[in-house]
Fold these 2 entries.
Entry 1:
Amino acid sequence: MSYKHLAFAALAFAAPVFAAPVLAPPPTLGADVQPFVSEPSGQIAITHVRIIDGTGAAPVEDATLLIDGARIGAVLPSGAPVPAGYRTIDGTGETALPGLVGMHNHLFYLQRPNLDASGRSEQPIIVPQMTFSAPRLYLAGGVTTMRTTGSVEPDTDLSLKREIDAGHLVGPHLDVTGPYLEGAGAFFIQNHLLTSPADARREVAYWAGQGVNSFKAYMNITRAELKAAIDEAHRHHLKLTGHLCSVTYPEAVALGIDNLEHGFFVNTQLDPGKQPDKCPDTAGDPTIAAMTPGSPEANALIKLLVDHHVAITSTLPVFEQSVPLHSPLQARQMAVLSQQAKESYLYLRNLTNMRAGTARGEQEAKAYKNDLGLEREFVAAGGLLMAGPDPTGNGGVIPGFGDQRELELLVEAGFSPVEAIRIGTLNGATYLGLADRIGSIAAGKNADLFLVKGNPAAKINDVENVITVFKDGVGYDSAKLLDSVKGRYGQY
Ligand SMILES: [Zn+2]
């Protein structure tokens, strides 16, 4: 996978105890949130509904789901009477799923100034904040908790989290990741550039003090800087993930990293001529090409990751964008893009699709297929796989829609629909240390869940048919949220 195109594309010596600070108590909703509420908080009974609980279990048919304020009250079997005092919603023909836990979900867009039809653009590449549109898109798509997984404006993201938690703005629960921990050679310009391990430590300590929930190392970081950052994050009881390149997966495991982004796409351990602490121009392409699932190299890497409890985040939607003729073109997605974003995306989409049948196109398809197989084998070996769309790349991966697409692509990888849903819900909650409160539909957990028309256990694409998204027991109208950002994504 050509990273240049794509862009964004534990060694537990002393197992740290991680804080789980993401969820806030249910707020009183303000005037900017109220218009999107279709089901106010209260005692709600959703009757005749199919429940996919997020654990990977088979769906429960014709159940009654009780919501008591901010919590899930109970799941009653078919035929059980609705207790007195509950407001009823008829869920016939619908399915309830736990709110998605998006583990690679940015709050910015990727702009290429003066992009032309040949794919050429001018420097500097910048990533403007989507603080208005992205939270609405995520919530509309069923995402009730998300990690920002690399921030360009951490203060903005922290303010957004505070405003959402206070009920002043609409959006999911946020795990705010600190600024990209990146050295010279950054892909976009809005980065602090690390200069030393001491600098990395200072940066992590500062942002931990400001209240970020997690950290992410990026493509041009040295092993010494990464080690310093991991140790400092752990000292603050925070976890650190990486989209790496200069540091290989096995090196990062040895340094004690908690999570690796982008499945197996950005590992550089088999890139010819790989120099220590340097991101090779090949950026992992030869490694993923050589990592045939089932090969000794692949098996050894998977064992290493599982043995050290390093989670992997699957971000298939952004990689799908590099495979010719693979990603669908959907009217609902085009409707939310700004005119400029739409034009840029269609240019880049054309360039990918024109590679169908070429050597480059075949190579992208092969890398993609290898990654699908590796993600499956990682889970089969006991690894914790999580999901996130990474809404960057060519602009075709959009918050919310991308989270739904990730589930569809996990099914393409060979997971059953309910397994894919578990990866997109309970597994993320488990990593965040929040599995006792979110990630599945069970009595006592947060009423963070969503209703879709149809049956995603039989046809995973039905996750696209979102009707209502409950967060802390308040139901939001998906269509109203989408209407409010028509033509805005890419703009602000
Ligand atoms: Zn990313």
Entry 2:
Amino acid sequence: MLQDRQQKIKQIQTETKTLPLQRKQLEAQLATSAAALESLKQNARHVEVDRKKLELDVGTRTTSIARLRTQQYETRKNDEFQALGHEIERYEKEIQQIEDQELELMEQADKLKAQIAAEEKKAGAAKQSIARQLSDLEAKASTLQSRLEQLTKERAEIAEKIDEEVLNRFERLFASKGDAAIVALEHEVCTGCHMKVTTQTAVRVKGGKEIVSCEQCGRILYAAE
Ligand SMILES: [Zn+2]
């Protein structure tokens, strides 16, 4: 039946239209997952840079302390010896503080490392799942396409045998109603618009000798079994 093919063609066209959006959503998921991983890796790089800077800070202070110690051994003045000693203490305190900060950063780095490993695992799984879904979408698109070609061919074969005027009427009705151009008449009620038709119309439909339209919606009626 022509209408059956027409409805199926329309369904397939509607379904086909949703495919690019589904593809885009999957690609967006993939990008989100990659961005989350990249952001963690960037954090880890920042922590590493900060830690290296602290290491350098310790290095310069260690050098300063060594220089002060040499000066201390060379001096014979007691007050100068003590002043150098205070400066050494100050640097040693600073080194301690810096090393505490370094420890904190190392803890952060460890945490980030664990997070990155977990995120990498997650991203890998997501990538696999999304790749699978994308290839399913491809398969679906090609199935829908071949089904559409088959239906279009069948529809053309059926249309060939139908009177042109009737075919045009059907096309116009189908396009304007969007769902069905030919509907059943059940207990004198049009199943397209659910309105009761006149008894005269119902009799003509039951007669089955001509094309009868619903007075309300214009759809072509056929008698329900
Ligand atoms: Zn109707």
